[in-house]
Write a structure and sequence with these properties.
alpha+beta; Helix Hairpins; BirA Bifunctional Protein, domain 2; eight-stranded mixed beta sheet; 16 strands; elongated; RNA-binding
Length: 433
RNA sequence: GGAGGGGUGGCAGAGUGGUCUAAUGCGGCGGUCUUGAAAACCGCUGUGGGUGAAAGCCCACCGGGGGUUCGAAUCCCUCCCCCUCCGCCA
């Protein structure tokens, strides 16, 4: 949520920044300000009336105490009209405020000044590249072929259980998935200073609102209800990312400034309806309804927000380096950025069998946009309450990491060599048929 | 699923229609005293909003929302959450 005060004070700046997203949201600024003005006009009047009513009520109390009933009754009659007007104005204020906030909740965050201007993914600048595309003396297989030959994933039976877009990991495949999760959690807790948390996988609507998933992307979530009781529908959702519960851990709190920075790492499965998404229904692991992810979340002071973002990306990159994978880091341009983000780096890992890069991590600084939505603040040394910056990043997403790993480390004989760092976790140096 | 109890400031805890401007205690901050500290004493100590250059003034908030009333922490309705016991259950 943007700061209403920023809209009042610098509407042109807000319009200019929103316009860089190419989504047309800048036209909403005037609507929001009109409602805000309506609210304040009515509020000024109603508060004045309330002050008067409070004074008169106190007088009535005093008169009652002195048994001057007739005088008290006269005052009561006089005040009744004020009460009616207050009821009216209260309603106007509440409606204007609700309309204003509904609009405001649908306006995305402002891109940071350092973000490249651009229209879509084609305009995303490449920041750096690690390694290079490996050469193979043979034609590299796709992860689908490898997964079937090595019996890592049973695509047909996964679909039999839950439909297209759901995976059944089997044997070494299941073991590899579990090894990756443990490797990532250990890496980020032991070497990068994150605190491990394990959140609920079913979360309240307010968590989804807090991180900016709702109201705009409601159609992308799986809603759950209790049994067949439709009245419970709309309260709880399957998490689309651990960001949703973990970023909300401290919602509606005022953290002592000394407690920052807070750094959390969490493993969770992620559930996405992917309604209308390209690539859905394509065989394989690239786009599925359920995948595992290890997520990194930071709550930090605004002064350190962007340094922390750089560190966060580095932390995610370490995963790929340790696994011997070639990747590149790109910076999402203004037109390609997510709703809540001010600045986002994506990490794309090379998948030889696909012959393309796969997005395995998205690291964002949402500045105070989410903190404001969830009313999370921290107290400065001066005793002032401020909204912290909230950052999130995948560290990393698994199904695609799995793809890159098996495709990259496949051997001429059809086996997959396990990178050194992962061997203690999986308990083998090679997966063969 | 059934029965019962509860939700008040950082914490504990009073308050059941009118100086509640929420008692009191603890904790915290500042001060007096002291060589220093403790004790004692004094003062301050929540959140958001409106207005204003500022100081200030005003409004709202006792789990959320709504209602009754001139006036609600207090009465009524409704929802949420927590606790205890019973049943079922990994």
């Amino acid at each position: 949520m943007l700061d209403i005060k920023l809209l009042r004070e610098k509407p042109d700046f807000v319009r200019e920044r929103l316009a860089t997203r190419n989504a047309g949201d800048e036209s909403r600024v005037s609507e929001v300000l009109a409602l805000d003005e309506q609210r304040r006009v009515a509020l000024a009047e109603v508060e004045q009336l309330k002050a008067k009513r409070n004074a008169v009520s106190k007088e009535i109390g005093a008169l009652m105490g002195q048994k001057k009933i007739a005088e008290a009754d006269a005052k009561k009659a006089e005040t009744r009209a004020i009460g009616d007007r207050i009821t009216e104005l209260d309603k106007i204020v509440a409606e204007a405020e609700s309309a204003r906030d509904t609009l405001l909740a649908r306006i995305p965050n402002l891109p940071h000044g350092s973000v490249a201007l651009g229209k879509d993914a084609a305009d995303n600048p490449e920041i750096r590249v690690h390694g290079s595309r490996p050469d193979y003396a043979f034609k590299p297989l796709t992860h689908i072929e490898l997964a079937e030959k090595l019996k890592l994933i049973d695509f047909a039976r996964g679909a039999k259980l839950s439909g297209s877009g759901f995976l059944l990991y089997t044997g070494w495949g299941a073991r590899l998935e579990r090894a990756l999760i443990n490797f990532l959690l250990d890496l980020h807790t032991a070497e990068h200073g994150y605190r491990e948390v394990a959140p609920p996988y079913i979360i309240g609507e307010h968590c989804m609102f807090g991180v900016g998933q709702f109201p705009k992307f409601k159609d992308q979530a799986y809603a759950v209800q209790e049994g067949l009781d439709g009245s419970t529908l709309g309260k709880l959702y399957l998490l689309p990312t651990a960001e949703a519960p973990v970023a909300n851990i401290h919602r509606e709190e005022i953290l002592p400034g000394a407690q920052l920075p807070v750094r959390y790492v969490a493993y969770s499965p992620c559930f996405r309806a992917e309604a209308g998404a390209a690539g859905l229904g394509t065989r394989g692991m690239i786009r599925v309804h359920q995948f595992d992810k290890v997520e990194l979340i930071k709550i930090v002071t605004p002064e350190t927000g962007y340094d922390e973002l750089e560190q966060l990306v580095t932390n995610a990159e370490t995963v790929l380096k340790r696994l011997g994978l070639h990747y590149r880091v790109i910076n999402l341009c203004t037109g390609d950025m997510g709703f809540s983000s001010s600045k986002t780096y994506d990490i794309e890992v090379w998948a030889p069998g696909q012959g393309s890069y796969l997005e395995v991590s998205s690291c964002s600084n949402c500045e105070d946009y989410q903190a404001r939505r969830m009313n999370l603040r921290y107290k400065t040394e001066a005793g002032e309450n401020r909204f912290p910056h909230i950052l999130n990043g995948s560290g990393t997403a698994l199904a695609r990491l799995f793809v890159a790993l098996v495709e990259t480390h496949q051997q001429a004989d059809g086996s997959v060599l396990i990178p050194e760092a992962l061997r203690p976790y999986i308990g083998t140096d090679r997966i063969s048929a």
